[in-house]
Amino acid sequence: MRHVFLDHQSSTPVLSEVFDAMKPFFTEAFGNPSSLHQHGLRVRDALKTARQQMAALIHAESEEEIFFTSDGTESANLAIKGVAYANERKGKHLVVSATEHPSVIQSVEFLEKQGWTCTRVKVDREGFIDLADLRAAITPQTVLVALHHVNHDIGTIQPVREAGKICAELGVPLYVDCDASAGWLPIDVKEFGAALVSFSPHRFYGPKGVGVLYRNRKARIVSILHGGIQEGGRRAGTENVPAIVGGGVAAEIALKELPARSAHTAALQKRLWDGLKTQIPYIQLNGPVPGPGRICTNLNLSTEFIEGEGQLLLCDMNGIAVASGSSCVSKSLKISHVLGAIGLDHALAQGNIIMSLGKDNTEADIDYTVETFAKIVTKLRGMSPMWDEFQKGIIDSVIAPTGRGKSFSQHAADVSGKAAH
Amino acid sequence: MRHVFLDHQSSTPVLSEVFDAMKPFFTEAFGNPSSLHQHGLRVRDALKTARQQMAALIHAESEEEIFFTSDGTESANLAIKGVAYANERKGKHLVVSATEHPSVIQSVEFLEKQGWTCTRVKVDREGFIDLADLRAAITPQTVLVALHHVNHDIGTIQPVREAGKICAELGVPLYVDCDASAGWLPIDVKEFGAALVSFSPHRFYGPKGVGVLYRNRKARIVSILHGGIQEGGRRAGTENVPAIVGGGVAAEIALKELPARSAHTAALQKRLWDGLKTQIPYIQLNGPVPGPGRICTNLNLSTEFIEGEGQLLLCDMNGIAVASGSSCVSKSLKISHVLGAIGLDHALAQGNIIMSLGKDNTEADIDYTVETFAKIVTKLRGMSPMWDEFQKGIIDSVIAPTGRGKSFSQHAADVSGKAAH
Amino acid sequence: MSDTYTLYNPTVMEHFMNPRNMGDIQDADGVGEVGAAACGDIMKISLKIKDGKIADARFKTFGCGSAIASSSMATELIKGRTIDEAMSFSNQEVVDALGGLPPVKIHCSVLAEEALKAALEDYVKKHPELAGKKTAEQAVTA
Amino acid sequence: MSDTYTLYNPTVMEHFMNPRNMGDIQDADGVGEVGAAACGDIMKISLKIKDGKIADARFKTFGCGSAIASSSMATELIKGRTIDEAMSFSNQEVVDALGGLPPVKIHCSVLAEEALKAALEDYVKKHPELAGKKTAEQAVTA
Ligand SMILES: Cc1ncc(COP(=O)(O)O)c(C=O)c1O
Ligand SMILES: Cc1ncc(COP(=O)(O)O)c(C=O)c1O
User: Fold this and answer.
1) Which is nearest to A265 in space by CA: A316, A205, A212?
2) Which positions in chain D touch A29 (Cβ < 8 Å)?
3) ipTM of the complex
4) A243, A128: one domain
5) pLDDT of residue B346
6) For strand B320-321 and strand B4-5, is the pairing parallel, antiparallel, or unpaired?
7) Which of A310, A412, A420 has the CB atom closest to C65's CB atom?
8) Which domain CATH number covers B400?
9) With a threshold of 0.80, does the pTM exceed it?
10) C68, C61 Cβ separation under 8 angstroms
């Protein structure tokens, strides 16, 4: 059986160069960077190199603007809460988009319990914010605007440069969560006008266990994990040296290979979507069409009349690893808040699958995926009462409505007694 | 030149078994545990095994009581703030000892800014809390008592079992920070009567990048890093799988080898202190005498009339890696708060060096250290105006006072115009 | 990676991959279609009843792996039972027969129970004589 | 680990490991002892003055590596200077000659400057005729 990994957004394997760079820091150079002897000083040097590599990836001016955290989630928490707490006297209002990652959304909700207020800027059906809405959301009390570069579910590339200009004009720092874009799209903190940028090397062939937060010198921030004076007093705790070193090397390689990786995945993305839409009726792409509005790695698909988890499991049993934003797949039994925010019909949200490409995927992988996925859809539709009722004209398609009957969602609400959430 | 690592409290090298266990999780099994396909499920299994290994080390009943964080600092922050926030309605008072690690103290200070109050239980000259003081500090508003098992600076083993009984009697959860003891002293969460226990595998030959928090099912806690629903909703963020796996193996081996490691380091600890006090006049051990009151790995030394950083640097130039709690060594120019809390004379705090032993240290290492350290002390005393003035009878010794003159500290205050801090 | 790791236990996986009794019964004696508001799953069970017993049971399911496995298992279990026996069918039987389901997926087995009961009710509705018998019986046992 | 990693640059390390002018001058013309309240360091500098010039300078220091290196360098730099030149000695010279110090350790060089000035003052105090001369000179340059 062919093995095709199409879940690069969840994580990526560590490059052999990265692993080799990390290796000595487990055994031979195991020192704590806070130590003042050989063992500590050696790793201090290594952290500095990694900081420079991280800075280079996002075109930051100095490695002193780079802070290490444990992951993308912690970086987002630090950016949001660290800025909020530092500027409490200035104001207690935040602006975020409705489709931020949960690490941003939940951080904001935590602050709301502590007396902050937050405006969530809505997105359109492709997931884009409206810059006029963003501008209107900013008040004199706003201490931070958080806008992700690329959406982790539907691949939408937000207009961060333009958002940066508005923020600069209004004098509010902009935090750009680049977790879903770093290593795949060019990032330039100055071009973005970003006061803070976060990313996570395990998304571009670096190790887990390290997150990065860029902070422009002008942005005030306080630490949220308290203790020692590591990371210039902004992040206490013994540094995860091997992961930081490995992450730095991953960043250096990502910067160098970025054009090739982007071109390669963009070509496969097109081949995959072209193949799927040709082979499978009643399938739809969520988020922008592949091109300048969408990241080159992501396809978010809704296949009508069948549910997501079954698709995911059958893909897996056929060697294809994919993700899903469907409610059955999440522990909370809720569909992804992103699919909710773009107003996706519940039936389509249920049939959701996310495929994300990587540098090692091949055309043969894509062709196998198209062929296999078409079979899976056929199998699941064969089991689906909804497909049956659609064939019989009892319910209609949402993707290609004919006006001949009630929708799947209406039907589902009828049989379950209430509307799904 | 011989190389002697005597800073095991700062970090330890990863065991080869640990490294081998981690290895596949960087490349081959790189999945995200949240993923529902092969790649995710495989690592989920691995996390469960690691949880069991961690639970075994501290005799926790179930692996479901184990949460993974990024380090000891984050575990302490989560224990303190997570319990405080979860029990806000019950009360806003905390009790900690004066010699907790900065990750506890600073977490408490952060909460104090948000309206909590905290009683700091003082310690005696050896660093022990008085159980009567602890009892007296607890009020009906107290939601958590935090007491470390072993002090990271002076090796004092706190009466945690007795503290646990008092807490149980008064119905307040006890958090025991075992960062400085786990892997070296037996830990039994039930015997301790601990609702929460934290530790960090990089202190016992596991990797950096993972911290552990045990939480008894009855203790209420909320998360402090917000986002996804990893770790049962108590710690968002992609898990650092390789470090967790490696930490688990390190815990398993530590449990097995604990008696041997303790006996070995205890013997070396005795040999080292005996050697030093025989060879070097005016040297003192801070904290309890080696034995049941002190961890088997730590010696905290004050050598009179000379300062700590010079000792540390000369040790390092002679291949011996040590730490120091002296003010010159810290970025803040303050002596360790622990040395302050035990009321150590400032002159002795200045001449502070911490040596911490590990399983691979040998008798030859110890003998080399004694011999070398004696030479270093002679060299530095030769440069010291204080030693000179002591010889001339102008100032007196604090360690062995003769009553013949003013103390070093008084003299230092005189020449600097004010008392040192 | 030589082993296969699965979200569900082997029995659940087997019933998901090779569901028993999948399909419709053309001239069904009772059909029930129910939906779970919690997650949006929909399950349809059709029954063929002969001599007061379930002669055949078929399902169609729009739902996750455990929903499909639950319907497969429920239809397997129910075949050959009398209507009265089937009326007291509980989702726990499905869970047990499947060797367990993740806590968050227990509702899938409940859905199977509900679909079965809906199909039985449909049958009973079409056969008012049974309803009377049932009520009389219930009066006796009560 | 083949390279040696050091907290300070090679010049500082060299002056720490092999300090120049360490010791006391028995019949010193001026002695200054100062302390840094910030970290508890103590530095003592003794001077031998001949023909208005610093003929010899020695130090003793209780303090960290950079304090020892700073006193070593300061005594090196100051030898051969006139009293007036020495009076305008600045810690920056020490920092520069050492090739830099970590920011948190700059105060060590300040301590060296202070110890030197205290020694000079001690000398001037013992030679009131110089104090007058100095004041007159200052009046001219002012
Ligand atoms: C946009 C975005 N931000 C933050 C995160 C959190 O990253 P991590 O799970 O590595 O902590 C993710 C992860 O999916 C993400 O996609
Ligand atoms: C008692 C104690 N608690 C917490 C910590 C924090 O651990 P880490 O630096 O690994 O985050 C330490 C580290 O020295 C410690 O000794």
Assistant:
1) A205
2) 1
3) 0.93
4) yes
5) 85
6) parallel
7) A310
8) 3.90.1150.10
9) yes
10) yes
